[in-house]
Amino acid sequence: MANPRSKDPAKNQASQKFSGGAASPAKPVKSAEPAMSPAPAVPKPANEIKPAATRAVSPIPPKLEPAKSAAEINPAAGINPLADALRSAVVKHRIEATPAAGANPVAEVKPVTISAPAFPKPAVETKPAVAPTAAKSTAAPLPSKLESVQSVAASPSSRPTPVAGEAKPTPPKIGTPAGAIASVPPAVVTAKAPIAPVKPEPVVSPMLVTVVAPSKKNEPSQKPLTPKPLTPPVPPISEQAVVEEIPKLKKTEPEPGEPKPSLEVAPPPPPAIPSMFVVMIASELTPVAKVGGLADVVYGLARELETRGNAVEIILPKYDCMRYDHIYGLTKAYENLWVPWYGGGINTTVYFGFVHGRKCYFIEPHSNDNFFNRKCFYGQNDDVLRFAFFCRAALEFMLKTNKHPEIIHCHDWQTALVPVLLYEMYQHLGMRHSRVCFTVHNFKHQGVTGDHVLRGTGLNRPEYFLHYDRLRDNHNPHAINLMKGGMVYSNFVNTVSPRHAWEAKDGGQAHGLEPTLNTHQHKFGGILNGLDYEQFNPQTDPHIPTKYSADTIEKKYENKQALRRRFLLADNAKPIISFVGRLDPQKGLELVRHAIFYALGHGAQFVLLGSSPDASINEHFLGLKRHFNDNPDCHLEIAYNEEAAHLIYAGADMIVVPSRYEPCGLTQIIAMAFGTVPVVRAVGGLADTVFDKDFSNRPLHERNGYVFETADNPGLESALQRAIACYYQFPEHFRQLLLNGMRGDHSWNHPAQHYLNIYDFIRDK
Ligand code: ADP
Predict the structure, then answer these.
(1) 323, 289, 752: which is closest to 529 by C-alpha?
(2) Residues in contact with 577: Cβ distance below 8 Å, sequence separation at least 6, in sequence order
């Protein structure tokens, strides 16, 4: 059926033609890859897996796709005449760049704290090493529980107020919460030597990727040691004395006046972690203000915490471009909130509303700055001031409304000033009991700015804050680094996967904040993001035409057909390989591009959905789109479109995620929930969630995708080749792989427990 959304009659005509036809055998389509970054002539690794014809083929018939004979599917067998005929018959003009109906027109804008080149080199960004003397400094402002544990031990009631410019020699002391992150397996992807294309992962010490627990032995004592009183020596008990004691032991009736022994069963011990009041402060929330994974995480974690009986409220900016149709009961909660700003103040209104059951407050300032009336979320020149104001307003609102959350959970640089303001200002105004957990979703965007932000927020004292141990950028002594401030002043800092925690601290992927992570490693760890199955669930997803589960996986094929109709792809026996994500250099765009050519040349179709705030990147992919305009096996959609993303997750056979770095990555997790097999690079959260079918050391039922190590074309091909070969030659194995992915538990269940353990550990008891 033709795609009713398409305005292009030629496209509709093509679609009708394809959808009516029988499945055509997969043959390679010659798609000469224009030289952009010519692939190095690297010989294929000797250990590369060839889809051996000698492998035993299971008699189980494939359920997703009809199996093809080897002659039919051999990509090297020649050009597919049917595909050729179709291609020449169809003239398609699929260069529409405007987002499809339903797309969020503003969500393409991404944070641009550091403007990225169009296709940077794949090497990991590194920054010059910081002078060792500086890195060793421990004169941090003791944010632990907003006070030094040692000071508390000496005088429980005293809360030391830091003196300007005074360096505190004792780092905040936070140990490991029992069972907190330590239970997260460090997910080592170890290759089987010598044939594995996945190189052995660096040995990940649990101490590095999880909360570092100071050993009891070395732990400095928190309380002064008081010598135990000496007990007098106990004389040996004689047999006679024992006999005399027996009647007393037999006594059943209590003496008059003596309290009767209670026959009641002892009350059950209190729950390990009491329910808590948590306020999340964030710049994104699914679905009202979504740019990327941060929005999904804030919503999913908040929901899971509430399900477990905690009280959770979320504070967001009131953007003019939010999806107001997803906010229920929006009402004014506080008027005339006077938020101090640059020595004066900004009159602010705070709104309350429910976002799919979550309690949310929205900050709306009334000033000529129009901080949140920009028709976009990020990408403005004054982003730092916009979100600095947001931090101050959120705290002012909590103070004026007497909110005293046990935990304030902040996300990314946009909210990093909250712990700074809390420690330096608001605890002295009455917010003594709140503690801060700070989650870094992406180290690349840090909010590096001038000291004017200090004057704006009322922190002032640049000589105090431009100190290496506080907010001074590690590389520019005249710049303020907001994310660093958040890390220094929070009670706990985490990133969104154990593997990325290690990569950031010891693998040079913290974009210059490695020394800060080392200084504060005792309160740093990695917690894998979860997936909100209410939002991403093939059994209930409103965006897909046919609902299905692992037990009815055959129905996934109907979504594949729908995806083909939606994107005007030919109806044939080829697998669909997909990419969904921001078109950011972080995502390995040069490899995404190569994956398109490789897939089309090896018997697969390709769909891409993504956009970038960088016009040159969009333009590049629009050029590719024009290049493949007549190709019935390829569709690139340069847009943000939530509904199309869900259809791709449900309809595609594979998703490729070749990121250069990936703090967690949600697309591969979402894809697995929909039975789409991920082909990923072994980096960050990708390595923690995807386990190679052939080379993982995991049990067979946990293997759920294909993994490659090196960020180059041969690396990508080593995984894509195996995935495509398995799809064609061992469809029953491929089916098992996607079922493994669907059956894996990627819910918020475990991650939320880790966060609760941390909350419980840092809260003011
Ligand atoms: P990041 O946080 O780096 O953007 P993640 O993989 O963690 O990447 O999360 C990406 C989220 O954004 C997923 O929910 C994905 O479906 C969604 N997404 C990304 N790009 C698009 C797009 N162009 N259209 C629709 N959804 C998108």
Answers:
(1) 752
(2) 595, 599, 604, 605, 606, 607, 652, 653, 654, 655, 656, 679, 720, 724
Ligand 1 atom nearest residue 536's Cα: 14
Ligand 1 center–CA 115 separation, angstroms: 19
Say how many residues make up the chain. Answer: 765
In the structure, what pLDDT confidence band is assigned to residue 273 with cuts at 50, 70 and 90? confident
Nearest to 655 by CA among 687, 609, 702: 609
For residue 558, how far is its CA from the centre of ligand 1 (angstroms)?
24
CA-529 nearest atom, ligand 1: 7
Q: Atom 14, ligand 1: which residue's CA is nearest?
A: 293
Q: State the distance from the centre of ligand 1 to the C-alpha of 133, rounded, in angstroms.
A: 40
Tell me the per-residue pLDDT of 44-95, one tens digit each, with 9 for 90 and over: 333 333 333 333 333 233 344 433 433 333 333 333 433 443 344 433 433 3
Q: Coil, strand or helix: which one is 181? A: helix
Burial 735-761 (b: 16+ CB within 10 A, else e): bbbbbbbbebebebeebbbbbbbbbbb
The reply to whether the predicted model has a pTM over 0.85 is: no
Whole-number Å distance between alpha carbons of 324 and 322: 6
Summarised one tens digit per residue, pLDDT across range 224-266 is: 333 333 334 444 445 555 445 544 444 445 555 555 555 566 7
Q: Whose CA is nearest to atom 4 of ligand 1?
A: 292
Give the least confident one: 217-226, 487-496, 742-751: 217-226
Residue 289 has which token pair? 């203000």
Angle at which helix 642-651 crosses helix 556-567, to 10 degrees, equals 130
Q: How far apart are the first and last CA of the chain?
A: 63
Is 643 touching ligand 1 by the criterion CB < 6 Å?
Answer: no
Residue whose Cα lies nearest atom 2 of ligand 1: it is 293
CA of 649 from ligand 1 middle (Å) equals: 12
Tell me whether strands 407-411 and 358-366 are parallel, antiparallel or unpaired. unpaired
Please work out whether the CB of residue 33 comes within 6 Å of at least one atom of ligand 1.
Answer: no
Residue 542 contacts residue 532 (beta carbons within 8 Å): no
For residues 610 and 583, the answer to whether their CB atoms sit within 8 Å is yes
Q: What is the pLDDT of residues 326-367, one digit of tens each?
A: 999 999 999 999 999 999 999 999 999 999 999 999 999 999
- Report the residue among 666, 668, 683, 690 best suited for mutation to probe ligand 1: largest number of ligand atoms under 8 A from its CB: 666
Ligand 1 geometric centre to CA of 369 (Å): 30
Query: Does 582 contact ligand 1 (Cβ within 6 A)?
Result: yes
What dihedral do alpha carbons 46, 49, 54, 55 form, nearest 10°?
150
Q: Whose CA is nearest to atom 20 of ligand 1?
A: 581
